[in-house]
Write the structure tokens for this entry.
Amino acid sequence: MAWQQKKGWLGQGGWQGNNDWQRSRARRWDNEHRTWAQRGGYGGYYIPSDRWVLSFGQQHGFRIRNRPVIYMGYPRFDYGGFSFMIVDPWPEYWAENWYDSDDVYIDYEDGYYLYDRRYPRVRLAISVVL
């Protein structure tokens, strides 16, 4: 909780967020996103392994369906019984309604990431919200 309250994801030049969905889109994603390693590591809540195997990983694709709402200046969505905050801007070349039209999944590497199957090499850093 303390890491989330202190916006721990901002480390090492992380995206500052804002209160407007359109301004949550990157101008040049390659320059604006940061991995969890670049941010100093993931320090948020971890999904228990018994819940992880049921709904998460590459084999569990889904569509967010509703445009994420802005929470603490960042897009937020719910899936698998958890809320997630997208702490990277979404790429400028993604469709305006990617959340409704594209299949996505959540995976863990050095922290949690949202992947869009249409753009498999792009990963958006996300944090579990408590």
Remarks:
- The first strand starts at residue 69 and ends at 71.
- The beta strands are 69-71, 74-79, 82-86, 104-108, 112-116, 119-129.
- DSSP finds five helices and six strands in the chain.
